[in-house]
Amino acid sequence: MELNVIRGIVTGAARGLGFHFAMELARAGANVAAADVNEEGLSQLRAASAALPGKVTPCRLDVTDENSISEFVHRFGEEFNGINLLINNAGVLRDGLLVCPEEGWIKKMPLTQWQQVIDVNLTGPFIMTREVLTDIFKRDTSPAVIVNISSVTRSGNPGQSNYSASKAGLDALTRTWALELAPFGIRVGGIAPGVIDTPILENVSGEARAQLLSSIPLARLGKPWEVWLALKFIIECDYFTGRTIEVDGGSHF
Ligand code: NAD
After folding, report:
1. In whole angstroms, what separates CA 63 from the centre of its chain?
2. Predicted pLDDT at 158
3. 18 lines ligand 1 (CB under 6 A)
4. What is the pLDDT of residue 202?
5. How far is the CA of 169 from the centre of ligand 1 (A)?
6. Mutate to test the pocket of ligand 1, among 43, 198, 225 (most ligand atoms within 8 A of CB)
7. How remote is the CA of residue 248 from the centroid of ligand 1, in Å?
């Protein structure tokens, strides 16, 4: 699909990768609905994208809120006269060990800490994709592309039971949806970034940051535009579906 025919939704677009994706799409002439819970970041995106050839419409949306998602998708289905791209990018980290012996007691990961991450990173894409597909089928507007932003830690990472499980689940959805939707001209791809320089890393400093860097053969953090190259490929290559591309500097997780 060519970038300038896109009428798409990017979740988690107020900062980091999502902000970058929305900007690049608009730079290529696409029409983008930019969804996030961070209204200040959305205002910055509105200002930054104002002079680009495409149009970015920032909109507050919590990807765990089923009713709001339905309204949001209906609104942009109408405004765009059919949505043809969804990027499930919104994601959160709530790291911690499953159980950890401390002095005199055993610390456990609370169920809420597990659930928050599963809700945003896995259930969010499930609801978003279900609603977008419903709109596509109703309006008969395929071809379309769905992209899920997973992570290299999907194969497991200490301290990330919740996050790794959510991203492994998202990968399974990429494969499942690709198989279900191929007959309808709808492709589904995934990207598994390694460690990319975005605000999600703002609390990772000192020794933890050095340790992260030492696990990357290319010995540096990735840049958002390097992940954009993979996204651009997935959108543009009509023979790509059902796979997840790793953009990780060769990391060995
Ligand atoms: P980020 O924290 O900079 O941005 C994430 C955005 O998602 C934020 O703007 C946040 O407000 C939004 N968000 C959170 N909860 C939301 C909700 N309920 N509804 C709507 N929006 C919500 O993170 P990033 O680094 O840009 O990450 C983007 C995606 O890439 C995430 O899915 C993340 O897991 C994944 N990823 C990032 C890295 C990395 O190193 N940066 C590595 C692997 C995977």
Report:
1. 11
2. 93
3. yes
4. 83
5. 16
6. 198
7. 16
Tokens of residue 17, six digits: 């990768």
What token pair was written down for 229? 């190259």
CB of 227 closer than 6 angstroms to any ligand 1 atom: no
Instruction: Check if the beta carbon of residue 117 is closer than 8 Å to that of residue 57.
Output: no
> How far, in Å, is the centroid of ligand 1 from the Cα of 42?
14
Active site residue 163: yes
**CA distance linking residue 167 with residue 148, whole number of Å:** 9
* Confidence tier at 208 by pLDDT (50, 70, 90): confident
CB 17 less than 6 A from any atom of ligand 1: yes
Phi-psi region of 75 (alpha: psi -120 to 50; beta: other; left: phi over 0): alpha
Which one of the listed residues 114, 163, 177, 228 is annotated catalytic?
Answer: 163
Q: Is the CB of 248 under 6 A from ligand 1?
A: no
For residue 90 the two structure tokens come to 């919104």
pLDDT 10s digits, 41-54: 999 999 999 999 99
pLDDT confidence band for 143 (50 / 70 / 90):
very high
CA 98/CA 55 separation, integer angstroms: 44
Asked if 187 and 240 touch (Cβ cutoff 8 Å), the reply is: yes
Predicted TM-score (pTM) of this structure: 0.98
Give the separation between CA 187 and CA 180, rounded to whole angstroms. 10
Inform me whether the pLDDT recorded for 105 exceeds 80: yes
Q: How far apart are CA 147 and CA 204, in angstroms?
A: 27
> How many Cβ atoms are within 10 Å of 130's Cβ, its own excluded?
15
Scanning the chain, the segments in alpha helix (DSSP H) are: 16-27, 39-49, 66-80, 111-118, 124-139, 161-181, 206-214, 224-236
